[in-house]
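Budget justification aside, the reviewers requested a transparent look at the raw inputs and outputs of the sequence design task funded under Objective 1. We therefore reproduce one unedited record. The lines immediately below are the structure tokens for a 220-residue chain.
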């Protein structure tokens, strides 16, 4: 079973920051199709702070680092994304409390705990067309695998997020600002799902994991 050191987790977070910041306008444009068009800006505002503060954040333990990132998200990410992403990092950090590295089972548990926290915070269900419709199949795929090859895991979970973009495209949103426009939210991609898939695809590219995306939003 593979393990991730705190330095490897820091690197992944730094890559995530770059992805979110680079796609600020694109994510906002996607959100504007059915929402209020601020998702990209809201997320990027917080991740710019994470990027700036990451070198100085306490890295004595994975949990402490993630809890600090959670606080930054809650304070600096705007709209509903702040509580959602902040809760995800907080719940993942609680599982990793005191750990200097995490094994695959612990990583899987962190994702599961993050999902539980987000559900409790926002009340979303499967099919509500939120980022959870990507996170649930990601977690399920992680549970199916033994973690002996993290590259294979990354390719597999990226595929799940990629599939979620098209699987939910025709759905009507039942949570968030997009839910207020009813049927007009159908036939539009959910920006949160696209965001998760884009982050994972950028991890694939950075770590040399071979993956060919299918959704148009990743093939641009």
């Amino acid at each position: 079973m593979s393990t991730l050191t705190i330095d490897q987790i820091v690197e992944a977070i730094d890559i995530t920051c770059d992805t979110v910041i680079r796609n600020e306008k694109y994510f906002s444009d996607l959100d504007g199709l059915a929402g209020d068009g601020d998702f990209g800006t809201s997320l990027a505002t917080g991740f710019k702070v994470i990027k700036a503060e990451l070198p100085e954040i306490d890295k004595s333990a994975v949990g402490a680092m993630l809890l600090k990132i959670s606080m930054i998200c809650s304070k600096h990410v705007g709209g509903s994304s702040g509580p959602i992403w902040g809760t995800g990092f907080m719940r993942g950090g609680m599982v990793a409390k005191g750990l200097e590295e995490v094994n695959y089972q612990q990583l899987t548990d962190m994702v599961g705990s993050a999902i539980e926290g987000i559900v409790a915070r926002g009340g979303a269900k499967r099919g509500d067309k939120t980022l959870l419709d990507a996170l649930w199949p990601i977690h399920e795929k992680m549970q199916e695998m033994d973690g002996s090859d993290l590259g294979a895991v990354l390719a597999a979970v990226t595929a799940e997020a990629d599939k979620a973009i098209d699987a939910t495209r025709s759905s009507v949103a039942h949570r968030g600002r997009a839910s207020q426009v009813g049927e007009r939210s159908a036939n539009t991609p959910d920006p949160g799902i696209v965001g998760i898939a884009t982050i994972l695809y950028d991890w694939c590219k950075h770590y040399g994991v071979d993956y060919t995306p299918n959704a148009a939003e990743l093939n641009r």
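The chain has one domain: 3-218. The chain has a mean pLDDT of 92. Computational costs for records of this kind are itemized in the attached budget.
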